[in-house]
Amino acid sequence: MLQNIPIQRKLMTVNLLTSGAVLLLTCLAFFGYEVLTFRQATVQRLSTLGKIISANSTAALAFDDSDVANEILAALKAEPRIVAAGLYGTTGKLFAQYPVNSPASTFPSAPEQDGYHFERGHLAGFQPVMQSGRRLGTLYMEYDMGAMYEQLWRRGEIAALVMGVSLLTAYLLSRTLQKQISMPILALAETAHAVSKQRDFSVRAVKFGEDELGLLTDAFNQMLAEIQKLNATLEERVRERTGQLEIANKELEAFSYSVSHDLRAPLRHVDGFVDLLRKQSAEKLDDRGRRYLDIIAASARQMGTLIDDLLVFSRMSRGDLRRSKVASESLVHEVRDALQGEARGRVVWKIDSLPQVEADAAMLRQVWANLIGNAMKYSRTRDPAKIEIGCDTVNDEFVFFVRDNGVGFDMQYVDKLFGVFQRLHRADEFEGTGIGLANVRRIVSRHGGRTWAESKVDGGATFFFSLPKTPAETKG
Amino acid sequence: MAPLKRILLAEDNERDLELTMAALEENNLANEVVVARDGAEALDYLYNRGKFAGHANGFPVVVLLDLKMPKIDGLEVLKTMRSDSYLRHIPVVMITSSREEQDLIRSYELGVNAYVVKPVDFQKFVESVKQVGFFWAIVNEPPPGTMKRSG
Q1: Which H or E run contains A98?
Q2: What was the pLDDT predicted at B55?
Q3: Please, are residues A316 and A366 in contact by the beta-carbon 8 Å criterion?
Q4: pLDDT digits (tens, 9 = 90+) for A239-252
Q5: Distance CA A359, CA A367 (A)
């Protein structure tokens, strides 16, 4: 029940409850003892008084003189709390009484067993009147305890007052003293809060003493220092690494720039001069020579295509992602229409409705162009070729797929599929540079997605790629 | 008086030059071309100085610039031309191997009139040169102060 209240109040509550309980128990014990001893003392006093009265009244009893007996009993006036007294003879008849004029009903009709007992605020009882071992009669006395109880009550009030004052003192003391414990804890809690809220590891908790809490504060501060140090070195390392990456990126840019510019020039020359040679000296060459020239030119052009594809790949890897909302469905239709060309009518298309995604439109177009282009290429031996494009929603991702009924591939080589310059078909079967799927994978992974494929030889292929529904922070 | 040359071609690479000239020849434009072998020479021609001093008057209808040249590259030539009140109106066409975005952006920022990427395929290159030459030397009306067509 104390779990959720603040530590200051918790400490005070514990203190007050403890001291309150101790005080209450002490008072109760003390009071109970008082009542007990007080009763015992009263009984003692009454029976002593009774013995004196008995001793004095033996003669009156012996001579059956009730007037003297009444007089002796009248001496009890000196003790105002004795409300009634009576002497019974051996016959058990009331012989004398005090006060003399009180009605007979005040007294028991006959003596009962010896001894005193408490009833209704009164102490009453009988005791024998003896002389030399012979019982002459019985003395009855009734004592009013009211006044005594009043006195006890007053003591109780004083005890309650003392208890109240004690509790107040305890409250004031604990209010001051609990700070010794709560302050360092509160300071620790405040520091922890500041750290977790502002991520500022430079703050330190204030230390109040050399006790366990001081130890705790020291340990806490030490941990903060450690975290701060780790953070700093981490940031430094990140900065360092970023710098290295930037340099590497710059180098790569310079590299691809020179690839773009310088590597293509000689190819252009090969092709150009082959062409000039063909024009000038074709008639001097035989068929074989002309075929060689064709091969030289074709090779140069193929190299040119490879370089171009490689440049696209490197551009896709380097350039910034420019995210915007892209309507996948219209993009797919656009790409399909652009690629269709001569294949119009040969392919049976089934394009499901596709969601809008947040992506770099140009890059995503490249992905679709590669996947749809592949599907068309590898299904061109089919009649009819069937290409299905769709999307499933799996958890937080859109999973797009392009399915064809083409020649497929052996799943054994699925790992090679997305590698740069990796091909599963000879160039004379299906043309291509082997860079398209590498591009797809690179682009999709830059968007936080994955790429995979399923196929069977001669059983068509399905290419999947996923995109997160809500794009993560751009990776660069 | 030397024949009027209406096209200025800046090209440093000998083989590229030969191929470009062959392409121009196929399109009967070779006679209209004066060649500068780097950016500095191109500027010399435009300013009538150095080896072109007192050579000709009037501006070419178009300047074909290679991007990457020794001494002064194509972009610098373009920049100089665009900041010169006499040369700023002359049409400039980049003819280059590079299709790098940064080169494209830079060229257009500096005010290039056209940007042609040299394809590996020579026949396509011939076609490109033909179109560029045809458009700038024949179809396009050059700014005032440009040399009139000879003959």
Answers
A1: strand A94-98
A2: 66
A3: yes
A4: 999 999 988 888 87
A5: 11
Q: Are A437 and A417 in contact (CB under 8 A)?
A: yes
CB contact under 8 A, B121 and A265: no
Asked whether the beta carbons of A450 and A466 are under 8 A apart, the reply is yes
Question: Could you identify the residue written with the tokens 């780790």?
Answer: A230
What are the residue ranges of helices labelled H in chain B? 14-26, 39-46, 74-82, 101-109, 122-133
Q: Is the pLDDT of residue B1 over 60?
A: no
Q: Are B8 and B45 in contact (CB under 8 A)?
A: yes
Q: Centre a 10 Å sphere on the Cβ of residue A326 and count the other Cβ atoms it contains.
A: 21
When CB atoms are compared, the residue of A256, A269, A311 closest to B15 is: A269
CB contact (8 A) between residue B68 and residue A267: no
- Residue where the block lists tokens 């490249």: A366
Among B19, B68, B96, whose Cβ lies nearest the Cβ of A269?
A: B19
Sign of torsion over alpha carbons A35, A36, A39, A42:
negative
Measured between CB atoms, which of B67, B100, B122 is closest to A272? B122
Tokens matching residue A427: 């160039």
- Interatomic CA distance for residues A268 and A273, integer angstroms: 8
Give every CB contact of residue A141 below 8 A, 6+ residues apart in sequence: A46, A49, A50, A53, A76, A82, A84, A85, A124, A125, A127
Helical segments of A259-397, H only: 264-281, 287-318, 328-340, 361-378
b/e sequence A125-158, b meaning 16+ C-beta within 10 Å:
bbbebeeeeeebbbbbbbbbbeebeeeeeeeeee
Token pair belonging to A195: 């750290």
Q: Which of B15, B122, B124, B129 would you mutate first to test chain A, the one with the most A CBs within 10 A?
A: B122
Q: Which two tokens stand for residue A127?
A: 């005791």
Cβ-count burial of A389 within 10 angstroms (0-12 exposed, 13-18 middle, 19+ buried)?
buried
Segment A147-176, tens digit of pLDDT: 778 888 888 888 889 889 988 998 898 888
Q: What single letter denotes the amino acid at residue A475?
A: K
Four-CA torsion B27, B29, B31, B33, nearest 10 degrees: -130
Separation of alpha carbons A242 and A75, rounded Å: 115
